[in-house]
Known about the structure:
Order of helices and strands: HHHHHHHHHHHH
Oligomer: single chain
Mean pLDDT: 85
Amino acid sequence: MNVRLKLIFILTALLTCVLTSTAIAHEMGKKMDYNITVSKADVIYKYMLFVIETKRISMEAVIEFAKELGKDTHNLTLYKNKFLVLKDELENATKERNYKKIRNITKEMKEVVAKFRNECRKIFGNETTEVKERIEVKLKENEEYLNSLLKEARITRMKRNIELFDLAIKKAENIINKLEKRGINMTDARIILDEIKEKRERFIELMNKTIEACTGYGIGKCKPENVSEVREYLEFKKDIIKEFKELKRKIYELVLEYYIQKGLRTVENFEKSLNKLEKNLDVSEEKAKVKAMKDLLKSAKHNFEKENYEKAVEILKSVKESFKEVKESIKSKKMAKKHHRGAKK
């Protein structure tokens, strides 16, 4: 049930590509305060705790059986104790959200388990049938406890999924609100967003049903082919992801359409200003650049209509840079002419 609903809607680059978009670009670049309380590390730890406790119970069953046979259990006990120390270290690393440390500790725990198994072979040789039976008995005795750990892990993952869903909704709302303040009609995007928001309760309901249906199934054993609840959940999740992608596409569409049209109007007005300036100033070079800008904007519009949004954004960035260059060029020519007149006087 790992849902990745993280959205990347409109990056600062998209908004700064527009001729007069500096203010909103600054706003979009600000870090927004969204609280994700359940980290990826928390989910990993909860699942690992189920595995760790399964290993611990198995180790204790082996040690107990070895003692009954009068075997030396010193090394087995050392490995088990080391394993439990690492368990505590793993818990601390999870609280720190130190993923590198988590990976290193996990690797070390696997090595300790391997050493424990090797010691078992030295003690029991190839006669492991009864050892396995003892382990199975102990795991059966602790079945309810182990199932509760796995259920807790699944609930933890569900909580994170809900937080990620809410995060995506908040980010979308924040972006839409800011774009509306810039005068962009975001009605179509809001319709899609509202449809997604309405799916929240059903999303949670299906996750809860899946968790209950998966009781008794080990990690990776609760699959859509054998549990109908899992199948229903996965299909619903797929629909949600599809709608988020459609929302992202619609936001791109509305923003690009608005700014392409605005860019065309801006360039046309600037062209008129150049026509007035050329009576007293040589702006032939600038007029050629403005004509090229108009062609670029038409190309951006063409790419937009073909839903090649990334290319349209790239073109708009180029138009913005050209626009700045033309403005600076005219400013320099005006200053030079003014200086020349002053020198004559």
